[in-house]
Amino acid sequence: MDISLVPISEIDHDIYQIQSIIQSLPRSNPQFSILLHALGLARFNRYTSSDDNDDLDKSILYFTHAIFLPQPSAGHGRNILQVFLDLTDALLLRLENSKQPEDVEYLIQYLHYLRDQPLQIFDISPNQVTTSLVKALAIQVELQSGDLTNDIEEMAILCRELFLPSDILQNENLIKIAVASLVQAVTTIRFTVIRREEALYQLVECLREACIHLPNFPHVPLAFAHALAHRFHVTYQTRIMRKQQPSWTELSLPKRVPSHAETKL
User: Fold this and answer.
1) For the segment 83-140, what is each residue's pLDDT rounded down to a tens digit?
2) At what angle do helices 197-213 and 220-244 cross, to 10 degrees?
3) Where on the phi/psi map is residue 123: left (φ > 0), alpha (ψ -120 to 50), or beta?
4) What does the alpha-carbon distance between residue 84 and residue 61 come to, in Å, rounded to a whole number?
5) Residues 36, 66: Cα–Cα separation, whole Å
């Protein structure tokens, strides 16, 4: 069922019921975190219908509080990872609207944390997390609040992970979102910013694979051509500079300075 089709009055009723239960429980109760998570989801669902930023802000607040409260022993791993996943979804949505640097910093940290967890055991899609991380890094590039070259290189590596043969057919939409974010990022900063050869290698190879797997995807062939030309230019300049640098054997030692005694002879 499409959440946006649920009447706000029905969502408000759910919020009221959850809040009533929460008020009757001590914070030490293991169910407290589950209810806060549910309240965050209700607020997030309300935002999809109301487009009220207050609903989105409150959902992020409730998700954050739920993470730091004691979790029920049964299904603890699943619960905490699901809360983190919902928190990152809400943060990414707010970030796309507000472009706040502090949001992107926390979001990237949380997504890196999720990528280090055994998500598949809990039936959580690792590729969804990877795509969200690419989108977050693209926004960080747009805001120029991080290391641009490192961000582009990481985005390229992450996109290449999505091109694995076992995943590519079932994740075509995620791949398109990730590649579009990468292309937008490199277009925003211009290729000339990227000078490190390894970063350029990852970018070129990623766009090469994107041309193969997404032959009709707009802007990718042009981005690939620009990246390839820029890598050639950087590589050529690097080789010229290395040739112009004298080797240690070519460096002449300074002439010996006469001693004080020799100057008197």
Assistant:
1) 999 999 999 999 999 999 999 999 999 999 999 999 988 889 999 999 999 999 999 9
2) 150
3) left
4) 12
5) 6
